[in-house]
Write a structure and sequence with these properties.
3 domains; mainly beta; 2 helices; SH3 type barrels; single chain; five-stranded antiparallel β-sheet; disordered N terminus
């Protein structure tokens, strides 16, 4: 029994050694991934998902590495290894861990909170485990408003935020008055604040107050039935 145990152990160790990627190929795969636009120079850690997949030698040639067109080299990814000289091709799944900076809440932030510098901080972590829209720098969060409450340490994504008011009380605005078969413009002063899509009140020079929808910064549309 001891003899067969030793023999089986040697067999499985030998199989595992044959299946492991050669050091040079492992480095080539890492370099290929690091050049991907989705990684963009970030630190990566490449893990072969199934070490039992054997990659044959490419005697007299070089192994070409590729992905499906448009595939994102990130997280669970399948790379195609091909040797034209020996006429073989192998699909090998990898788990590509990507590490870099991202933005999190530095404290509990309630719904509607306008983001200020003290509300957020930047930490390093595994980006492939986070939503695709996670902010990588604080700049994209400042002066925006939260769509939902966030706990301390929660990552902040672009979809968690909306623009703060693009029109404030007292701002000069251009009014676009539109109705059936006509459109005219005028000037006024904002009486209420609002963001794109909000309804705001605008006072005209003659004192009349109209209500319209914010189209963009400093522009309000008033629809006349």
């Amino acid at each position: 029994m001891r003899f067969w145990g030793i023999l089986l152990t040697a067999f499985f160790l030998g199989t595992s050694a044959q299946a492991a990627l050669a050091p040079d190929l492992d480095k080539e795969i890492t370099r290929f991934i690091q050049k991907s636009p989705s990684v963009n120079g970030l630190r990566v850690q490449v893990e072969q998902v199934d070490p039992n997949i054997a990659v044959p030698a490419c005697i007299g040639g070089a192994i070409e590495i590729s992905t499906q067109p448009g595939a994102r080299v990130w997280g669970r990814t399948t790379l195609q290894l091909r040797c034209a000289k020996a006429s073989w091709m192998v699909n090998v799944p990898f788990n590509i861990r990507v590490f870099g900076d991202y933005v999190v809440a530095s404290r509990y932030l309630p719904f509607g909170q306008k983001i200020e510098p003290g509300d957020i901080r930047v930490i390093e972590g595994e980006l492939n485990l986070l939503p695709d829209d996670v902010l990588r720098t604080p700049k994209g969060a400042y002066d925006r408003v939260l769509n939902r409450p966030l706990q301390m340490g929660s990552p902040i994504g672009l979809n968690d935020l909306r623009e703060s008011s693009v029109i404030k009380v007292g701002d000069p605005v251009r009014l676009v008055l539109s109705g059936k078969d006509f459109e005219v413009s005028g000037e006024g002063i904002a009486q209420t604040s609002g963001m794109i899509g909000d309804m705001v009140r605008v006072r005209l020079a003659d004192g009349q107050v109209l209500q319209g929808k914010v189209l963009r910064s400093s522009v309000v549309r008033v629809t006349i039935e």
